[in-house]
User: Fold this.
Amino acid sequence: QKAMDKVESQLINIASVVDEGWEFNIPIYQRLYVWSEEQVKTLFEDLHTAYTAKKDLYYIGGIITVKNALKQNLYDLVDGQQRFTTLWLLSNELKRDLLSFTYNGKNLRLQFSIRENVSEFLTSIGPITKVNEASNDFSDLIQIGKARNLIIQLIDKHLTNESDKQAFSNFIFEKVKMVKTTVPSSNDLNKLFEALNNRGTQLEHHEILKARLLSFIESVNKRQ
Assistant:
């Protein structure tokens, strides 16, 4: 049985992503970036709290991916893209070791299918000066721009010197973990996507992660 004919879950960090040369694509059927500034702030402060507490591991949650047929090592992000995009934005502002995560050589490691305006913005990552907030065409840029501006403010507030920024970057690169679940492209993605968006009361991220980690640990134990 081919590896991509079955569901695979693995515990990864950003260093793993860089080592494997993975790139990620936000499919056109995915909703735009919608995280509020409060959600961005919570993620940053959770990461910073774990960093200051010198946690050896910090679980950020899970992502669900599907292998993209157009390019080797390219995965469509089916679930978890809001958190993953925020992590990309944070990494791009911290730079340092994390630049190898934001870019894979000359390629953006996070791509937005067809939405060239988003990819162009992430490439230039400059301030948005010509966006009409009433335009749906740029609503994705507005939210990403707001998130980016807030991240810059949070970095300035919480990381006061170069050594602190370097150490925080190292923490994110090595210690932040997520579960990457890859489902076969032969699955009915429309049904999967519909189920992810209509599962009633959303499970909290830690509940989803707990279930995936328990499944992951059980499969590891079986192989030993």
The beta strands are 8-13, 23-26, 58-67, 74-79, 103-104, 107-108, 110-112, 176-183. Residues 90 and 194 are 29 Å apart (CA to CA). Confidence is low (pLDDT under 50) at residues 126-136, 199-204. The two ends are 21 Å apart (CA to CA).
